[in-house]
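INFO batch 0412 | record 1 of 1 | parsing
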Amino acid sequence: MIAALKRCVGDDAVLYRHEDLLAYECDAYTLKKVVPRAVVFPKSTEETAEVVRLLSKRGIPFIPRGAGTGLSGGATPTGGEVIISLARMNRLLQVDLLNRRAVVQPGYINLHLTQAVADRGYYYAPDPSSQQACTIGGNVGENAGGAHCLKYGVTTNHVLGLTMVLPDGQIVQLGGLPDEPGYDLVGLVVGSEGTMGIVTEITVRLEKKPEGVRTVLAMFDEVSEASEAVSDIIAAGILPAALEMMDNLAIEAVEKGTFPVGYPRDLGAVLLIEVDGIVEALDEQIERIVEVCRKHGVREVRPASSEEERKSWWNNRKTAFGAIGTISPDYLVQDGVIPRSRLPEVLSRIEKISREKGVRIANVFHAGDGNLHPLIMFDARIPGEEERAVQAGSEILQVCVEVGGSITGEHGVGLEKREEMRFLFSEEEIAVQTAIREVFNSRNLCNPGKIFPSPARCAEMKRQPEGSEEALDALD
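INFO prediction complete | emitting tokens
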């Protein structure tokens, strides 16, 4: 098999020795690790298709992988898979500013796209905290969001078309034009976590840079006061570009991290509120935000005095996940979503779970759209702590669903939250989703064992007809 893979992509593009494979035994979800069978690095759509055809013919499962920054185990092997790394497919293929579009390969770094078009007044809106390292292909797989998704939406709102290699090696084109008639196959594939095929080219929407941007920092003594301010800002008819919150434990971590900004150690919570648009309208929005914050007992609230100060606040916030390593040897990140109005209640219940499980939980999240990121800290060297941390994460997700939310906002399900899918969906609903996946991935060779809970329903289901068109008609 190794010799055949080398014939597809070249001798220097296949890893198979155990010591070389260790770096690919997990993604950023490190609680489960399995060494893959091999790792292969195609450089084009055609090479990817050739590799997939080879593996499919031999019945060998495979996993597409980007930069490995995923937080739910989406790129983690479960046993016997070949990883198809898209790291060498890292080019910007086309920029069409007249139509505000760009075409990239999946290994192209998220932030590099904005940097490539910034001097012409454009940018790419989805901005995960890992945007300096994560790839646009990985963002497509997980439907990644970011701090500014409150106003601008997540990855699926910015993807126009895809080139994809199906699990049998067939190359297909999906989408390409806004509002195409027929099935929204692009929307179906974005967020499918590499279980329907391997995306090899992505057409994305570019945005015109706003005329002006202003950022407000608000410091509160209590998390509940900050949470109420979040709801009231939105209720006042203001739609910030971003509305972020960190609690006391998260503040402690970022102040020990790479970009401290001097937050007082006794703060209960910090809000970062950003507005953008026509310059003349920003001052009024800032005044209204400051007014709302003062109604909720804010200790201090002020706009950034300079672009440098604004950037320092954002650098501080975007390194929060990594900064948790300064106060805990191990941690896991959850990704539940709740209605904004339930923030005070849910944060109180998270605090209760923290006490009951005996683990510390820091909260860093996109408060504006209710996307929580509880960071559950533990020490794997202490027997039982990792298990309690995992239990705490599951209970938090159950709370999110109970209040009308979801188990994931942008990190995906992967391995981590497969069983928690049952919090959100009935067995019948899971079966329908599995049937749709089987239209594309009938032999379950492409990223097997992800998203759906065990025992896998796909083995119990009648195989759908070959060919996506007939199969989708059958689903109707």
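INFO post-check: Confidence is low (pLDDT under 50) at residues 456-476.
INFO record closed
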